[in-house]
């Protein structure tokens, strides 16, 4: 099983065994991510598994590297936690700038079809996670204008 799958299930024990067997750097490998390039750290944030995040940060020895990985579409751990309303994870990520530096708070997705140029605050608002919106908007008011953005539309090709 991939490390990303272990994180998705909240299986700290399996992650510990993988790291003991293959070393922590294996968690950085593409083959340990999901099909969208979502890392073990990002997946744990997506699913709200704080125990996995704490293990990865505190014990793996590569927490800072894992926290900086973004998916193929530019999703950060903060975005995935905000998307799913995991306030406890958002709070923990924001409690330490090493886990979520300002550039990660202000990061935007790339030109993914569904969510182009979206922030963590945008995801929290879009999916109705009021407590996460309140936290992010209070701490980062400069992100508020991006919540009301108009989604980019793809240009349709004209038929000949």
Folded structure, characterized:
The mean pLDDT is 91. With 160 residues, the chain is mostly helical. The protein contains eleven helices and no strands.
Summarize the structure.
The protein has 160 residues and is mostly helical. The protein has helices at residues 3-9, 12-22, 40-47, 50-58, 63-68, 77-83, 87-94, 102-105, 120-126, 130-139, 144-147.
Main sheet overview: none
H and E string? HHHHHHHHHHH
Structural class: mainly alpha
**Rg on CA atoms, Å:** 16 Å
**N-to-C terminal Cα separation, in Å?**
48 Å
Helix content: 40-55%
Shape label: globular
On the 0 to 100 scale, the average pLDDT is: 91
Total helical elements: 11
- Name the poorly predicted regions: none
| Strand composition percent | under 5%
Count of DSSP strands: 0
Which features does this protein show?
single chain, 160 residues, mainly alpha, 11 helices, 51% helix
């Amino acid at each position: 099983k991939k490390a990303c799958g272990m994180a998705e299930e909240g299986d700290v024990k399996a992650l510990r065994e993988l790291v003991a067997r293959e070393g922590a750097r294996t968690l950085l490998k593409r083959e340990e991510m999901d099909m969208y390039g979502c890392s073990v750290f990002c997946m744990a944030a997506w699913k709200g598994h704080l125990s996995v995040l704490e293990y990865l940060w505190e014990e793996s020895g590569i927490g800072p590297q894992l926290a900086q990985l973004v998916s193929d579409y530019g999703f950060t751990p903060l975005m995935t936690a905000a998307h799913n309303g995991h306030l406890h994870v958002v709070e923990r990520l924001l409690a330490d700038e090493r886990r979520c530096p300002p550039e990660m708070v202000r990061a935007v997705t790339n030109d993914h079809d569904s969510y182009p140029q979206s922030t963590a605050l945008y995801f929290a608002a879009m999916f109705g996670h009021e407590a996460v919106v309140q936290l992010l908007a209070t701490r980062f008011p400069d992100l508020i204008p991006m919540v009301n953005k108009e989604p980019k539309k793809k240009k349709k090709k004209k038929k000949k």
